[in-house]
Specification:
Blueprint lengths: L2 E4 L6 E4 L5 E5 L2 H7 L4 E7 L3 E5 L3 E5 L7 E5 L6 E6 L5 E5 L13 E3 L23 H4 L2 H11 L4
Parallel strand pairs: 3-10
Antiparallel strand pairs: 1-2, 2-5, 3-4, 4-9, 6-7, 7-8, 8-9
The structure holds zinc ion (2 copies).
One zinc ion (ZN) binds next to helix 1.
Length: 156
């Protein structure tokens, strides 16, 4: 399974070479400010399954409440955000689903930080929604947990 993606101007292109492990729709105020939208949709995937096909993203580090670095990789030309590396772990990325050529094929598995979601857009019926965060062991499919542990190690 391959998912081609690119920035807005096309200077950076890449593809996901596997299905994402898990997909967040994040309604936190950081995502709202950084995107200028109501939320960010992030596909969580191993870095080794993100293959650059054109250009080289630039790293922009922003601060977080936890104090750990949040690195956003952007197109150096048009500045579109392509993915995030939370905590500079290098092995697991949060790819912006909106950069995929067919973003609508990917549905969020969970909605997080709904305490700050915009009130004028209702969540779909039956959506798994969390005011802040969630228990990964409960929500992630077993296969995805195994993939995550394979790159991060257990207990992280
Ligand atoms: Zn660009
Ligand atoms: Zn967020």
């Amino acid at each position: 399974m391959r998912y081609p993606a690119s920035c807005f101007c096309g200077a950076v292109a890449f593809e996901l070479t596997a299905k994402p492990m898990f997909v967040h729709c994040c309604h936190c105020t950081d995502c709202q400010t950084q995107t200028g939208g109501a939320f960010a949709i992030n596909a969580i995937i191993e870095a080794k399954n993100v293959r650059l096909t054109r250009g080289k993203p630039r790293r922009v580090t922003v601060k977080t409440d936890s104090g750990r670095p949040h690195d956003i990789y952007r197109c150096p030309k048009c500045q579109t955000a392509l993915w995030s590396d939370y905590g500079r772990r290098k092995v697991m990325l949060f790819v912006r689903v909106a950069t995929l050529k067919r973003p609508h094929n990917i549905k969020p598995d969970v909605h997080i930080f709904t305490r700050s979601r915009v009130p004028w857009l209702p969540l779909p019926k039956g959506a798994r929604a969390f005011r802040v965060y969630y228990d990964m062991k409960k929500e992630w499919p077993t296969k995805s947990l195994a993939r995550r542990a394979a790159v991060l190690g257990k207990g992280r």
